TrEMBL record:
This is RNA 3'-terminal phosphate cyclase/enolpyruvate transferase. It comes from Sordaria brevicollis. It is found in: Nucleus, Nucleolus. GO terms for cellular component: nucleolus. SUPFAM superfamilies: EPT/RTPC-like (SSF55205). Keywords: Nucleus, Ribosome biogenesis, Transferase. Signal peptide: none annotated. Transmembrane segments: none annotated.
Length: 406
């Protein structure tokens, strides 16, 4: 019937906010999210980073309708076509890049925006080129919210797209200016640009249920902004002191950047985003098996570089000990791409701790609400050597609507 209201998929709360918006955009199913921090007396409704994410979705799609209630505790979202960067369509596009500015009160790392954006990019009609700038861009890992750094995203997440027939060679992440979290964990002042030129009709079916293999090399990036460059060497030396006992091929690059200048309300510029951190990625002898770890100094300080290096090294060892072929950082990305792929059954080997995470279980429930099939879970056939599980995911064949029309 004409004029009939769309059938909304209903959620409550702010959990998995970005992933639900992404699933809605990919499947074309509208969503209604209510009771967003409705019990908070001081900050009810959408947070600044969630509002900024909705503006980003509006910039890279055509025809999306977003309605937010006066209090900000309820939103309805009717998705449009994922256009990417198209001249004359994106109102915030400058040249071949969509400019997106993050507010100064943003507390989330830039990967909060990059992870869902990279999930949408393969299904866009044109290339997805987005530059993040403004006083709220945090390129490091975040101490309070647990977001990974741009280095872990570039080395531990983006290479995995190649297993779905999405060439990583056509995906470029440029870190034009680095920054850590500012005072109180707010703001940063960095600049990051993602150029995603790998658009596909349908992602290939993934079969990553082999043995994880042995760790053959470890790579990483030690970064610091606005502090002495010697902090990098101190973090690297501490990390190598732990890792060189186990793996001989360990190489960690050092990256130093001056603290970015950000203007305040009075028009005065000051340096924020001062800090340091370490990102480590372990690569296995089996193709496509990557593990990552991120540790950053808290904004209030009080931590020496040696502690950051040692903690990051031990955190990486803990992630490897969890087993499986992917860590909890990249598991949601792989499981979502498997569900959006061709109508075949893909398989992914996960450690029990990764599968038992609230985020992974919630993703399975959300995918089912959006029409995907339930997952099949069984023990691996390794004669009792590990406790890993194999997750079977059937693709929905949603694919790239924009490419189909074109």
């Amino acid at each position: 019937m004409s004029g009939e209201k769309p059938d909304f998929i209903r959620f409550t709360g702010h959990r998995a906010f970005t992933h639900r918006i992404v699933l809605s955009t990919l499947t074309g199913r509208p969503v209604h999210i209510s009771k967003i921090r409705s019990s908070s007396a001081t900050h009810p409704g959408l947070a600044p980073h969630e509002v900024s994410f909705l503006r980003l979705i509006e910039a890279i799609t055509n025809g999306s309708v977003i309605d937010v209630s006066y209090s900000g505790t309820t939103i309805t979202y009717q998705p449009g076509l994922i256009t990417g960067t198209v001249a004359g369509v994106n109102t915030s596009a400058v040249g071949d890049v969509v400019e997106h500015t993050l507010p100064a009160n943003n507390t989330r790392g830039i990967t909060y925006f990059l992870l869902p954006l990279a999930l949408l990019a393969p299904f866009s009609k044109a290339h997805m080129n987005v530059r993040f700038s403004g006083p709220g861009v945090i390129t490091s890992a975040t101490h309070q919210t647990g977001d990974i750094s741009v280095d872990s995203f570039r080395t531990a997440v983006l290479p995995l797209y190649g297993m779905f027939g999405i060439p990583p060679a056509r995906i470029e992440l440029r870190v034009l200016s680095r920054s850590c979290s500012g005072p109180g964990g707010r703001g940063g002042g960095g600049v990051v640009e993602l150029r995603f030129a790998s658009q596909v009709r349908l992602p290939k079916t993934l079969h990553l249920n082999r043995r994880p293999g042995r760790i053959r090399k470890i790579r990483g990036v030690a970064y610091c902004t606005g502090v002495s460059a010697s902090h990098n060497n101190r973090m690297i030396t501490a990390a190598r002191g732990v890792l060189n006992q186990l793996v001989s091929d360990v190489h960690v690059a050092a990256q130093y950047d001056p603290a970015p200048l950000v203007g305040d309300k009075n028009g005065m510029k000051k340096k924020i985003g001062i800090g340091f951190g370490l990102s480590l990625v372990a690569e296995s002898s089996a193709d496509g098996v990557l593990y990552s770890a991120d540790v950053v100094a808290p904004p209030e300080g009080g931590v020496v570089p040696e502690d950051i290096g040692t903690r990051c090294a031990y955190q990486l060892l803990e992630v490897i000990a969890q087993g499986g072929c992917v860590s909890n950082v990249s598991a949601p990305t792989l499981l979502t791409l498997m569900a959006m792929g061709s109508e075949d059954v893909g398989r992914l080997r996960l450690g029990r701790e990764v599968l038992a995470r609230e985020e992974t279980i919630g993703l399975a429930r959300d995918l089912k609400k959006f029409g995907a099939a339930s997952w099949g879970i069984r023990d691996v056939d390794d004669d009792g050597e590990t406790t890993d599980l194999v997750v079977s995911v059937k693709g929905t064949g949603v694919g790239n609507v924009g490419r189909k029309v074109a």
